[in-house]
Amino acid sequence: MVAATSRSSAQLIAGGMLLAHRRHRSDPSTLSLIRKAFIDARECGLAMGIWVAVASAT
C-alpha cells in the first residue's frame, strides 16, 4: 500500500524503511552494525537502503 500511494522516491524509501523496521525490530543489532561499519553518511545511507530493500523482499 505504501508503494502504491507514494508520490516521490523519498516517500517510497521512507515507507520501505518503516516496513523493514516493523518487520525486523527484533534485530536492532543489524542497524547498529551498519551505523558502526559505515562512518561516511552517504555510505551509511546506501548500506541502510540496501538492507531495507533486502529485508522488504523477504
The biggest sheet amounts to: none
Q: Radius of gyration from the CA trace?
A: 12 Å
- Helix segment tally: 4
Overall geometry: globular
How much of the sequence lies in strands comes to under 5%
Structural features, described:
The protein is built from four helices and no strands. The mean pLDDT is 78. α2 (9-23) crosses α4 (41-57). The longest helix is centred in the C-terminal third of the chain and has 17 residues, at 41-57. It has a domain at 31-58. The chain has helices at 2-5, 9-23, 28-37, 41-57. Helices cover 79% and strands 0% of the residues. The protein starts with a helix and ends with a helix. With 58 residues, the chain is an all-alpha fold.
Quick tags:
58 residues; mainly alpha
Brief write-up:
With about 60 residues, this protein is an all-alpha fold.
Task: Give the helices and strands, then pairings.
Elements: H1 2-5, H2 9-23, H3 28-37, H4 41-57
Helix pairs in contact: 2-4
